[in-house]
């Protein structure tokens, strides 16, 4: 929001009740009701509880966590103390029972307005940074790196909101890597692109215990339209408004949508092994980036995975052959990575002190140096 008015989203089914809120808001200066389709964030969400209380509280929590809603008021006829307690625990600011006490609501709205005026040191609206992790070949470890980097960032920096998007059209592995059972995936988005807003998106994302919000891939396209470059742009635009960091497991495909993703990304992690085929592919990929002007070279970080110190190809030879610096190396540790995958856990959860984990932590710090040093926002490395 660039102005100082309080944006309010009303998610109220009862038309009469909704109108009552609209009238109250209209009578107060500095407050306005926004359309349900307005992209996030909103300052205040006023929501009428429906019949699926647990699900609704879960959604409210994720909207608050991600910053999609600054504050939440609930309105409900349900005065069960257990529900009120759940509302408090979820971080709901006010709980209005019915019939509505107009005076009480007005005071609460004025308090939100005052809070915003006090903190009007005009914080910039969030624009998360996009990191696209792509492989120079299949099986080089893009998913391992994307998943563990996202979990590491979210786990070690709770002040950061992190999303992880699986762009592998058919064989998205992220649910297996993180042992999550998502109900939805981005096929729902391509199918309902006109309905895409913060609420819809947060409903589809699955929260992993590390704090990462995951957008899985469909695993199949049965009945779901394939994403277009426009869909991807729309989706990533919304995710950037909700999250500080959006990490994409981009796989290897270089179709229209993945090219658009690369173009929108702030940084690309190109994952390769120290092998001739991988170096040759990396070379071709980098040249394509140059000729298509997709992303400038300085924003492409080459990561050598499964690195062995006694490798036949040296790091120096590899750098010279592709004319690009190697940004990071991750040691070879098949046992740990495989064991993490088989257990559906992050590497940090099963081997936090292993060399590979130290390396991944180092990669996270190298990508987000300011975050590593202080509690500040980490965008030094990202350039546009
Ligand atoms: N640093 C590493 N050391 C040893 N093995 C690794 C390392 N990183 C990943 N692996 C292993 O490589 C295999 C492939 O990993 P992963 O699924 O992350 O690759 P990918 O590039 O995403 O593959 P795909 O092309 O199938 O999407 C896994 O068995 C994993 O355990
Ligand atoms: Mg993969």
List the keywords:
single chain, alpha/beta, Rossmann fold, 2 domains, five-stranded parallel β-sheet, 16 helices, binds adenosine-5'-triphosphate, binds magnesium ion
SSE inventory with pairings:
Blueprint: E1 6-11, H1 15-26, E2 31-33, E3 42-48, H2 53-66, E4 69-76, H3 81-90, E5 94-97, H4 102-118, E6 129-135, H5 142-156, E7 162-166, H6 174-178, H7 187-191, H8 198-204, E8 206-207, E9 213-215, H9 229-242, E10 245-251, H10 256-264, E11 267-272, H11 276-292, E12 300-307, H12 315-322, E13 326-331, H13 334-343, H14 347-350, H15 355-367, H16 369-373
Parallel strand pairs: 1-2, 1-3, 3-4, 4-5, 6-10, 6-11, 7-9, 7-10, 11-12, 12-13
Antiparallel strand pairs: 8-9
Helix pairs in contact: 2-3, 5-15, 9-10
This protein binds adenosine-5'-triphosphate and magnesium ion (MG).
Magnesium ion (MG) binds at residues 142-143, 168, 173, 251.
Write structural notes for this entry.
The chain is an alpha/beta fold and 384 residues long. The chain has 2 domains: 113 residues, Response regulator (Rossmann fold), CATH 3.40.50; 253 residues, 3-Layer(aba) Sandwich (Rossmann fold). Helix content is 43%, strand content 19%. It has 16 helices and 13 strands. The strands form 2 sheets. It has an 8-stranded mixed sheet with strand order 8-9-7-10-6-11-12-13, with helices on both faces. The chain has a 5-stranded parallel sheet with strand order 2-1-3-4-5, with helices on both faces. The chain is elongated and about 75 Å long. The protein starts with 5 loop residues before the first strand and ends in an 11-residue tail after the last helix. The structure holds adenosine-5'-triphosphate (ATP) and magnesium ion. The site of adenosine-5'-triphosphate (ATP) has 22 residues, from helix 5, strand 12 and helix 13. The site of adenosine-5'-triphosphate has 22 residues, from helix 5, strand 12 and helix 13.
């Amino acid at each position: 929001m660039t102005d100082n008015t309080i944006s309010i989203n009303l998610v109220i089914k009862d038309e009469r009740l909704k109108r009552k809120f609209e009238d109250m808001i209209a009578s107060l200066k500095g407050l306005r009701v926004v359309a349900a389709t307005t992209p996030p964030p909103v300052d205040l969400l006023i929501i009428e509880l429906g019949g699926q209380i647990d699900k609704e509280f879960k959604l409210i929590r994720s909207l608050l966590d991600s910053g999609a809603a600054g504050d939440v008021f609930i309105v409900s006829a349900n005065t069960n103390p257990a529900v009120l307690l759940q509302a408090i625990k979820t971080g709901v600011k006010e709980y209005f029972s019915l019939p509505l006490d107009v005076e009480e609501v007005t005071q609460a709205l004025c308090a939100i307005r005052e809070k915003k005026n006090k903190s009007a040191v005009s914080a910039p609206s969030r624009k998360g940074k996009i990191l696209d992790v792509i492989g120079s070949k299949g099986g080089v470890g893009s998913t391992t790196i994307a998943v563990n980097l996202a979990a590491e960032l979210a786990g070690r920096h709770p002040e950061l909101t992190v999303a992880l998007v699986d762009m592998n059209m058919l064989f998205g592995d992220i649910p297996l890597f993180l042992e999550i059972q998502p109900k939805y995936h981005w096929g729902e988005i391509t199918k309902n692109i006109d309905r895409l807003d913060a609420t819809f998106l947060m409903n589809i994302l699955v929260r992993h215990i590390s704090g990462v919000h995951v957008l899985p891939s469909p695993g199949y396209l049965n009945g779901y339209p394939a994403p277009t470059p426009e869909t991807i742009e729309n989706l990533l635009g919304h995710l950037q408004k909700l999250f500080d960091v959006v990490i994409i497991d981009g796989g290897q495909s270089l179709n229209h949508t993945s090219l658009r993703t690369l173009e929108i990304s702030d940084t690309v992690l190109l994952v390769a092994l120290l092998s001739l085929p991988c170096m040759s592919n990396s070379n071709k990929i980098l040249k394509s980036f140059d000729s298509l002007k997709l992303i400038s070279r300085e924003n492409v970080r080459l990561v050598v995975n499964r690195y062995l110190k006694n490798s036949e190809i040296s790091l120096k030879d590899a750098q010279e052959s592709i004319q690009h610096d190697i940004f990071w190396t991750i040691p070879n540790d098949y046992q740990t990575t495989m064991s993490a995958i088989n257990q559906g856990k992050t590497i940090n959860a099963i081997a936090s002190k292993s060399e590979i984990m130290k390396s991944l932590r180092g990669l996270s710090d190298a990508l987000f140096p300011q975050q590593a040093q202080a509690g500040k926002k980490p965008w030094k490395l990202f350039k546009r």
